Amino acid sequence: MQKKKFSLLIVLMMFTLSASSQCPLVNKAFTSGEFLSYNLYYNWKFVWVKVGTASLSTVLTRYDGQQAYKSSLITRGNGKLDKFFVMRDTLLGYVTPSLSPLYFRKGAVEGKRYRVDEVWYSYKNGKCKVKMHRQKSDRSHIRSEKTSEQCVYDMLNIFTRARNFDPAGWKKGHTVKIPVADGNGMTVAILKYEGKEKVQGDNGVKYNCLKLAYSEWEEKNSKYRQYATFFVTDDDNHIPVRIDITLNFGIAKAFVTSMKGIKNKAATL
Q: How many other C-beta atoms lie within 10 A of the C-beta of residue 204?
């Protein structure tokens, strides 16, 4: 479970918006050819140790005969991280130019196991139909379907859509809900706005950022539990500069190392 949350939190960076089920939106945050990279750290005996890297790229291509943005996320832990959990994840997502999700796939190596999650989206009569599939490490399969009146996302495609939010007028304590689908079903998370801070990336650049706390509902405790804090640029790009992640066995952090092909001028100091 912690392995799943780590990779989810790397990409589930921001917010969702309420609208019709297909949720069309004008993209103002990114363009084809964008490439973001990160260093991953873990707190080992009070010392922060680099334990891996992550990269996210976006290109304009085609999916099922229509134009679409393709996002690819790759996370790779090194030998130091492997002592706690193996992280060899490859995520792929397609959205329409108006940022409605079309398809999601995640292939994850967990120790000696390999699991695949897939989500397909279709839209009809103002509703969103979601088909979900999981292939487990024993090659068994889980399949399910759900039709929603609201927007539905996955852990990667929500990133492309949510970067186009408008935080104007937000005050500390403002929260939004995030419906997320994977191969095993759907869940709901919340994100809480906690103000603005200045944050330095691993590229040596300081950025003006929005601070956001991410929590998920825990059935056994009947309450939300906070799993991460995000620091995203306070500009039209809304790029995550730093991510603090709480795990059962410690704390992990991700810091941006480079931003290439970004659409708008970054909010640096």
A: 7
Pairing of strands 88-95, 66-77: antiparallel
- Residue 134, token pair as written in the block: 């999981």
Per-residue model confidence as pLDDT tens digits over 26-60:
898 999 999 999 998 887 667 788 888 989 999 99
Paired residues of 131 in beta bridges? 120, 145
Half-sphere exposure of 63 (CA within 13 A, CB side): 20
Do the beta carbons of residue 72 and residue 65 sit within 8 Å? no
Residues of the chain with pLDDT under 50: 1-4, 10-22
Distance from chain centroid for Cα 244:
13
Confirm if 41 and 255 have CB atoms less than 8 A apart.
yes
Span between the terminal Cα atoms of the chain, in Å: 38
* Cβ–Cβ under 8 Å, residues 145 and 132: yes
Question: Is the dihedral angle over the CA atoms 206, 57, 105, 68 positive or is it negative?
Answer: positive
